[in-house]
Write a structure and sequence with these properties.
Family: Belongs to the 'GDXG' lipolytic enzyme family.
Order of helices and strands: HHEEEHEHHEHEHHHEHEH
Low-confidence stretches: none
CATH topology: Rossmann fold
CATH class: Alpha Beta
InterPro entries: AB_hydrolase_3, AB_hydrolase_fold, GDXG_lipolytic_enzyme, Lipase_GDXG_put_SER_AS
Keywords: Hydrolase
Pfam families: Abhydrolase_3
GO molecular function, one term: hydrolase activity
Mean pLDDT: 97
Shape: globular
Number of strands: 8
Strand content: 15-25%
Strand order of the largest sheet: 1-2-4-3-5-6-7-8
Structural class: alpha/beta
Distance between the termini: 37 Å
CATH architecture: 3-Layer(aba) Sandwich
Length: about 325
């Protein structure tokens, strides 16, 4: 498969920057390296009508949240997006995905809330998931405090954040969490078994490597038994029927491509309204490279349009 020229540019920048793979150091060193690198790739931080730094109580202590109200979003009863940032459950935070959250807020004329959930390995599964669930409950139970409509809460996320968003959607379906209106998943991790063929095709040389993804997973799970748990591997859930409508963005040259495709196929086969946005020549993480990749913001716009179609508004 031919790489998109913008993906080639991002990969070349990574090679020129040097640095060792995350898995060759500690989690703290990986976070420091990622925090030093992401600003060079991040898209423009668009102005929004309001930004608030908040905290809610969570199962492991206070959870910091960042709220963006997009231009055109109503002051009350606005549609809302709970955005779970990516980073392999180990790295990333409110700043690393701030451009994406701002795009969603403005394009959807919505309120976007991103939780700074606990990270592994200090806080392995299910700590980060529990923090995202606590955020969803806070939005649904106190909508007036956020100026949102509790009936129009979407979940969204990229990579490991897409994994968390998909699991939140299943919790909502089962009544274990508040109802979710739609799920917007950007190259989500859906099967921690890591046996899909795309792990072989794109194992090395396409940004996120199979070796790094294995390290991320092993930081997150407590034991091999967690890999079988649908809350880690939503593709392994007994049923996906009754899930909220889903948009999935897939990168063609991504080790996670095949499990994302399989998740979309299962959703569709089990009666869930599903739309796939395919970027054939793109690599994992391209939506976090908006400075160089126009498809980054375009993918967010496509996700918002899918939500509007699902919503019928």
């Amino acid at each position: 498969m031919m790489l998109d020229p913008t993906a080639e540019q991002v990969l070349a920048l990574g090679r020129s920057a040097g640095g060792r793979p995350f898995e060759d150091g500690t989690a703290e060193e990986a976070r420091a390296a990622y925090d030093a690198a992401f600003p060079a790739l991040q898209g423009p931080l668009e102005a929004v009508s309001e930004t608030r730094e908040l905290r809610i109580e969570g199962p492991g202590g206070p959870i910091p949240l960042r709220l963006h109200r997009g231009h055109g979003a109503p002051a009350e009863a606005a549609p809302a997006i709970l955005y779970c940032h990516g980073g392999g459950w180990v790295i990333g935070g409110l700043d690393s995905h701030d451009d994406i959250c701002r795009w969603f807020a403005n394009l959807a004329k919505a309120v976007v809330v991103c939780p700074d959930y606990r990270l592994a390995p200090e806080h392995p599964f299910p700590a980060g998931l529990e923090d995202c669930l606590a955020t969803l409950r806070a939005l649904a139970e106190r909508p007036a405090a956020f100026g949102i409509d509790a009936a129009r809460i979407a979940v969204a996320g990229d990579s490991a954040g897409g994994n968390l968003a998909a699991v939140l959607a299943l919790h909502g379906r089962d009544g274990r969490a508040p109802h979710v209106a739609v799920q917007l998943l950007i190259y989500p991790n859906t099967d921690a078994g890591q046996t899909a063929d795309s792990y072989r095709r794109f194992a090395d040389g396409f940004g996120l490597t199979a070796r790094t993804m294995r390290w991320f997973r092993d930081q997150y799970v407590r034991s091999a038994a967690d890999i079988e748990d649908w809350r880690v591997s939503p593709l392994r859930a007994a049923s996906l029927a009754g899930s909220p409508p889903a948009y999935l963005a897939l990168a063609g040259c991504d080790i996670l491509h095949d499990e994302g495709e399989a998740y979309a196929e299962r959703l569709h086969a089990e009666g869930v309204s599903t739309q796939i946005g395919r970027r054939a020549g793109q690599i994992h993480g391209y939506v976090s490279a908006g400075r160089f990749v126009p498809a980054a913001r375009e993918t967010v716009a496509e996700a918002v349009e899918a939500w509007r179609r699902f919503d019928g508004r």
